[in-house]
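Provenance and format

Records in this collection were gathered into a single text stream. Each protein contributes a sequence line and a token line. The two records reproduced below are adjacent in the stream.
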Amino acid sequence: MGKIWDIGFDTVCDSVKLLPFLFLTYLAMEYLEHYTGEKTARAIQRAGRFGPFPGALLGLLPQCGFSAAAAGLYAGRVITTGTLLAVFLATSDEMLPILISEGAPASMVARILAVKFLFGMLFGFLVDFFHRRPVKTAGDCGAGEWERDAAAHGEMCEHGILRPAFFHTLQVFAFLFLITFVLNGAVAWLGEESFRGFLLARPVVGEMLTAFFGLLPNCAASVAVTRFYLAGAMSAGAMTAGLLSGAGVGLLVLFRVNRDRRQNGKIVGLLYVSAVAGGLLVSGLGIVF
């Protein structure tokens, strides 16, 4: 019982100290989404067949609604399949706030973002090369595309940026607290060496499992993957696979607004295979973050 109290105390100490950094990070992200969201959607819409490049680049922006907007644009035949995949692969979901609040080196953050951008763009162009899907031109699209997508996602920003930043911080803090408790308990009961030899740190199996876990349309997935990697329980390849497949709420919105279920299933399959391939490439090339 004493060990459980110690684990709980360590978890509180480890988690509470991150609260100010989480809130400030989300405040900055809400500002970006509030004032630049529509512009980024328009930029990706105008890119046409070159969409995977701006899609991967803009997908890196810490905007929880951008993958949802891309799903809406795809359903309206405004962007290509490769562009949607590039956005999904590059989307960071909750990775950036966790890395920033944990004080991860800027070089590590930059390398992770660079890898996500490169894989998003690469797999996006590959998909478009083998699968040409006709899309509308920018002039064919109604002026309210972004507004409808935002409404579907439930983020019209009418409450400003303080309120959503506060509630987003509390939500992620709850997941972070739970995951930190599990990590501290695993280290305490299994020992550090056994913990670092965890299943998710093993080659191939780790990439496949974390890529599948990343598909869950919940911020807990990216929080867990990032936190496990920082704790040393996951290889760089496994983390890459999990973060590549983690498209936030994009998949939920896709299944809601796009009626072609078979097409949606193919996109999920492409996302999973691309994420596993990206993770295996990182492991095979010996890339270290």
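Adjacent record:
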Amino acid sequence: MGDVIAIASGKGGVGKTLFTANAGAALASLKKSVALVDADIGLRNLDLVMGMESRVKYTSADVAEGKVKLKHALIRDSRYSNLYVLPAPQQKNCTNLRDGGFQRITAKLAKVFDYVLIDCPAGIENGFSDAAACAEKIIIVTLPEITAVRDADRVAKLLRKSGKRDLSLVVNRINYQYVKEGIMFSGNDVSKSLGLPLLGVIPDDYSAALALGKGELLDKGWLGGTILDTARRITGNDVPLRTDNNAAVNAKGKFSLFNGKKWFPR
């Protein structure tokens, strides 16, 4: 059986879907078979981030309703033959999904794939609870900002209350110069505040916005390296975190990104 991992966030706009897409690609690059499942019913974006929007023919709702087999709804990524996406329906009233259909779909995927990553809806509404219930492990993505951290704390408390214990944290869009100057939380600060183990720290970089607009993956440079490191940790490898202090130095030094352009904060 493969690992079923829900990717959650306390609020929208923290980069959860972009992280899900790229963590899945990184796992696929490590020779793991991966299924990415969009659980944001009515507001799907994972297909868009993956550059697959024109290829969506069926969704998880079609599978739950018995209209098509699961294998026909899965879309294979053109860059990694072992990476697939299951889109969410764009309509909200999908009773078959909510009445155990989503759990049955993820259970089937776990029998075939090494990793099933569920892109949860942001926040703590019913859709989030349904998606998280399918997963043994939860990764909470947040920003190093006080409002995002507070919302992430609410999500963590709700998950613990529901019996989830295997929780970890990814802190996105760290501006290491601001950390160095003491005007932004570090990854360790956020980890200690939430009481969650730090799985990954993703730097703020303009290339992420460029990739998001083109449906491209962040598989190069320092930014891609931090995501690949995070994927290795997901597989159980003990990969040292690039510490805030070192990264603050490296941001100006040897870790140049994308065609020789230097990292800079947005």
